[in-house]
């Protein structure tokens, strides 16, 4: 049996090979294996020659910001700038494979979601119309197909329409209409991430020499981080680059494939990685305790023959088993209290505890403060954004959304609806001649100047907002175009703001960061409580977990649970319906996973 030091040396050795081995290279790893660290070190340490750079791509701004920060910390900020590229795969595709091939006959508008231009489609059910957002559809397209597919997703905000259309057998018709609307908007020049991918692939296939010359002339290596999130289209684009001998480094943990709404495809991702020829499997988990590593192994499908991750980090000897906390409907707050009390006994402070759930609405209210999604109502949305900007626990992505909402509020106040409607803030700024950087500063100032919507009657808050907005014209010389963009105290807006307040900041001593799982990919925390929903799907999820047979309908939910559980360093707690809690305890014992059933505190 190898000693801890020998196991660590073996894990470091593989990391070192992944840092130095030339591309093409497939790096596969378990959670906490140091993928991010390897990518950054590869970028920092390898010597570059010639005029070409390296592209380091990821799917989220948070992951890219981390690479940029590490370059800065290592006193090598230039590694994040020209001729290198550190950014999202979306921006990379847009810059190097889409924009150069766009025709000059219209104005192109790049958007990250159809919500940026409030794109909707109206579907008639025979009696009444249903207005559905295009962002409520899941879009997909097989690389060789001529058309997209759309599928309406069931969400709380469209639940009524979804059920009506489903009962009348109209879901397919709704999808057809959505596709039609999308095609119309695409023809007008709106390019979403999905549309950009189709265009990038087309450029690589139809203008191959030019497209490859553009990419290969600029980069001598492309590193794809979190590659498990690649969609079928992403993989088809990468396959074109691979076949043209562009050196790729493909880094992923296929079991963490949870790209919401894009249909993660772990098997395809694995196959693509293997097609690169040489591969390195990072072993050793530097993050988590032995119990957490052992639990993670039970969440992988039986078809994946991967041994338990080896805990080699500072928490390898942590004695606590997995905490299982019974929490039937609406009892999550009691589960949270039990989790907090236990974490106290382990001297884990509140700021190092994290509560995770699949959906923001499922988070216990004392952990909910940072994860609410922005409301639809225009004035309530501005209030939401001000709350987020004032919160010291809101994650970067949420703050970015909040800043953009306030930028839009300022534009709408000073210009007309038609100036901003169906436009991103960026394009609106371009067409109105507004300097975007100035607008961002004004938005930040507005957030800190306004009173808290939690402690001010909403009518007064709107009045204060309008008075302040009057003082910050985006163009100093302008006068207001019309009055349509004032903040208004309607009954529905006030109700939304009241609801925000009810889930408002808990007292400082119990304040714990709460998040939906999709927002914490790549992160870690000492103690993590995962709230498993008490609903009809949980039975199927637990059955699949115990059997190891992950059918398509539950596979992604299990991977989401896997990502959540593996964020924990020292302590992992699962809150789940009572019946399942005891079954799970029995099951984990058969798998040698240390666990303990806790009593929720009332
Ligand atoms: N060689 C090492 N020595 C000590 N600590 C390490 C080493 N490699 C990684 N770590 C630490 O382990 C933790 C996990 O690393 P990292 O976030 O890079 O893993 P990851 O593979 O990206 O994880 P995940 O995919 O689960 O997000 C970090 O705290 C990191 O600093």
Automatic annotation (TrEMBL):
Record keywords: ATP-binding, DNA-binding, Helicase, Hydrolase, Nucleotide-binding
Full protein name: UvrD-helicase domain-containing protein
InterPro entries associated with the record: DExx_box_DNA_helicase_dom_sf, DNA_helicase_UvrD/REP, P-loop_NTPase, UvrD-like_ATP-bd
Highest taxon of the lineage: Bacteria
Pfam families hit by this protein: UvrD-helicase
Gene3D superfamilies per UniProt: 1.10.10.160, P-loop containing nucleotide triphosphate hydrolases (3.40.50.300)
Membrane-spanning ranges: none
GO molecular function (one): hydrolase activity
